[in-house]
Amino acid sequence: MTINIPRGTQDLLPDVTGRWQLIEQTAAEICRQYQYKEIRTPIFEHTELFERGVGDTTDIVQKEMYTFKDRGDRNLTLRPEGTAGVVRSYVQHKMHGQAVQPVKLFYSGPMFRYERPQAGRFRQFVQFGVEAIGSDDPAIDAEVISLAMELYSRMGLKKLKLVLNSLGDTESRLAHKEALIQHFEPRIDEFCSDCQVRLKKNPLRILDCKKDRDHELIANAPSLKDFLNEESKAYFEKVQHYLDIMGIEYELDPNLVRGLDYYNHTAFEIMSNAEGFGAITTLCGGGRYNGLTEQIGGPTAPGIGFALSIERLLAALDAEQVELEVNDQVDAYFVAMGEEAKDKVVELNYTSRHSGLSTEMDFLNRKMKGQLKTADRIQAKYVVIIGENELQEGKAAVKNMHDGTQETVPLDEVINYIRKA
Ligand code: HAM
Asked: How distant is the alpha carbon of residue 346 from its chain centre?
């Protein structure tokens, strides 16, 4: 019996990895311009990091983590997201003491969630994300949002919607929490067992419960926006003000809550509006997390960031029928006829690559016809034919595969000829 790939994962074969590389390179280039530096943290962390960071009443922690014990009996978890690990690393390496503040980081790598696989939802997926830690200037909220929008725009997406909300500061959230408890408590026995636990620990989570979502009490629950204090409102207005300056359009959605517990103040998501895009339309999610560093035992350091998956970015590109231009151009294919000619082809193929060209030759001892067929298949720009006659004359036949023209070029000028072309 053959062994297949685990459910919810995928093999990225060479016909698609070019697109992945292009997206990752573009993201890294934007981060260079925005002055975000790459960080790479482990793929597994202590389970406790996510329990404390992401929140032990969230679906991610309760239902979706790949948790295991290693041979030393440690409780470890494959990271379900990147923020907790980055913030752990920030604390561990005392980055708050660095000369340049805030600390602006980006990452890209696989995340793992035991979710029900469907279009746009995988159990292993790749997130690109940024975290800016050490500033609570609303201008950096706007910068982080603009960075995400910039990536989508450079990749060619147009049908996007940016949705913003404020989750308020601790004081506003506490007032809201009290109101939610009073609202749900009298009839909490009509809710699922998870929600009964959530009531005391984190009643906000009841609002995005998948089982109880149609309950009337959820529809008319007190809204956080009515509990935002003046400071929180002023902060949120500043974020919008800076987005206005950048000309970035957004919609406000007081019902936008995020699935992770560490958020306060700014929360945002970027959705695809493209027709035919699947049921899951969120491409990117992020927000502010003042207080997360303290939760994992570090000093006070406010932060904001986002993450987006490359899988959903690609799905949005497909939905908008955007073709990415992947550079896999083959400049020349060297055709050898005879042992001696092959020696010359091995040499030329090597020196061409050394000079920066992308070239190929035959490795299956095929006849001329077979070699030409391969050159055609891989869409080589030029075919360089070297046989015994050519070798004796010190020349090669160079064929332009676009227009079919052919020229005789001295062997020691072949590379220059192709480079110039
Ligand atoms: P999140 O909303 O859980 O936030 O995930 C962010 C993005 O990851 C989603 O918008 C989506 O593009 C992608 N994503 C999540 N789950 C899956 C899945 N199963 N399959 C494919 N793509 C998925 C976070 O992870 C936060 N750490 C974001 C953040 C960074 N907030 C502040 N800094």
From this structure: 40
